[in-house]
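Async update (no meeting this week)

Hi team, since we skipped the sync, here's where things stand on the single-chain job. The sequence we agreed to prioritize is pasted below, unchanged from the tracker. I ran it this morning and attached the output directly underneath so nobody has to dig for it. Comments welcome in thread, and please keep replies under the output.
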Amino acid sequence: MSGENSLQSDDPFELRRFVAAQATTYAAALAELRAGRKKSHWMWFVFPQMRGLGSSPMAEFYGVGSLDEAGAYLAHPLLGARLRESLAAVIAHANRPLAEILGSPDDLKFRSSMTLFARATGGGEPIFQQAIERCCGGEADLRTLALIDAQMRSG
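Output:
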């Protein structure tokens, strides 16, 4: 097996794209979340959503292609820990409107991301459903659910 193929099998979902993007932005992103106001541009790779929801090159590149990929993101020692840490920082401000914390349309991207990861865990990690309840008015993202359901039907 060549070195390139070995790398691909070690990272079949190319999660390294998220690790690389977060390398220079994550500390600032977390500080912004803890302060209760997102100011810079990192939403796509800190709170990823399903591929197919956004049409920008960034949304496409950082879009998560399946529940399996979402599960791999959660299981990744760095990405999963950072997602949970970032989520906790948002939940700490749950008494404020999400649009005030993240701005628009990033509040909608957050709802999409939480819907994806709540579904990927099958309820095994209640924090994602709690985020939907506490930060998103209890409403999951219907477009995300439709994409997941269509994918599951097509096998």
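Quick observations from my side:
Confidence is low (pLDDT under 50) at residues 1-7.
The chain has one domain: 3-154.
Reply here if anything looks off.
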